[in-house]
Amino acid sequence: MIRVLHVLGGLDRGGAETMVMNLYRAIDKKQVQFDFITHTNRRQAYTEEIEKLGGKIYYFPKFKGINFLQLKSVWKKFFKDHPEYKILHSHVRSYASLYLPIAKKAGLKTIIHSHNTSSGKGIKAIVKWFMQRGLRKNLDYYFACSDVAGKWLFGEKIVNQPNYFLLKNAIDVEKYAYSESSRKKIRDEFNLNDKFVVGHVGRFHPQKNHLFLVDIFAEIHKKCPDSVLMLVGIGDLMDAVKDMVAELGLTDCVVFTGVRADVNELLSAFDVFLFPSLFEGLPVTLIEAQAVGLPVVCSDSITKEVIVSDILEMLPLNQSVDAWANVALSKRNVKREDCVKEKIASVGYDISESSIWLEQFYRNLTK
In Å, how far from its chain's centre is CA 253? Predict the structure, then answer.
């Protein structure tokens, strides 16, 4: 059995984490086992599942800049103590330029995986960009969830090299199918019968643009008083969003679900998926939504590679909240049905095919 080390910031239901877990569930664990290095020691959404699947979890200190030398020592000692690892697959880019060269020197094959198209704004973003420039050289393999994410992190030269690979955020197409019973179950649970349900799945982070999303919903609610907004996820900005909802007098029609393990069922219960992100690599939630036949209204700052059906519509972020609200409301009477599974699979989003490819890739690295 090959044991592959995956490096993640945490193990909650974020985009990169969900993508890795989709692959982990599908891959043949008699051939390849995933272990994890993460940077928080609290138990998170995927901790228990990883343990049940046979994965090991190692907790490392968070990178704070001033602990640069301490972390170098931690990484060197880890590879010295764990010679069984031959492959390191990193989904963290902010300080990967510190530990990937250490891994390579220790004899591991190194993979850096791009999941985004921006570091945000401010001093932290500048520091991240400066550090991740070092990822463009002296590594073994470069992965990206989309071409735009690959070009952003690695540059044009690397994406044209033979050691660059596009590994899309694939899903279990059987799990993500529209279900009337799931729709009824969720709508009964939250008392949503006869409501127009606007849904969003994503961590509460500036990238996801929740404040603009709430502004759009406020306009939707003016035009459609029986509308409800469901926000699925957790994050640092949750309290700020709750405060905004209260200030707008929307507390009774906005549901904060927290982390949910039944996102596939929630998508069946929604009437429209609103996703005005500032930037994304390739959001797996939008692939899931289309698979369930859920109309999507998202920002045109997201790569067009996410479009796998005609039920997804993009709008510029500089459009008014009124324009966004009108487009969302126009989806109210769309007949729900599964997106064609064969179409999703044909453009690289079938997890069964992706896991087979990745398993063979790992096996080739250890020959």
Answer: 26
Sign of the dihedral through C-alpha 84, 86, 91, 92: positive
Instruction: Specify if 175 maps to a domain.
Output: no
Cα–Cα–Cα angle for 66, 72, 75, rounded to 5 degrees: 135
pLDDT reported for residue 13: 86
Q: Give yes or no: residues 122 and 14 share one domain.
A: yes
Q: Identify the domain containing residue 141 by its residue range.
A: 2-170+350-365
What CATH number has the domain bearing residue 270? Answer: 3.40.50.2000
This model's pTM is above 0.85: yes
Nearest CA-CA partner of 354 in 168, 175, 148, 176: 168
pLDDT averages per 10-residue partition of the chain, 367 residues: 95 90 96 96 92 97 88 97 97 92 96 91 79 84 95 94 95 89 97 96 95 98 98 96 98 96 95 96 92 95 92 97 98 78 77 95 95
d(CA 102, CA 149): 25
- Could you give the CA distance from residue 295 to residue 85 in angstroms, rounded to a whole number? 43
Q: How far is CA 79 from the centre of its chain?
A: 28
Co-location of 89 and 221 in the same domain: no
Q: Are 183 and 268 in contact (CB under 8 A)?
A: yes
Phi/psi at 93 (nearest 5 deg)? -115, -20
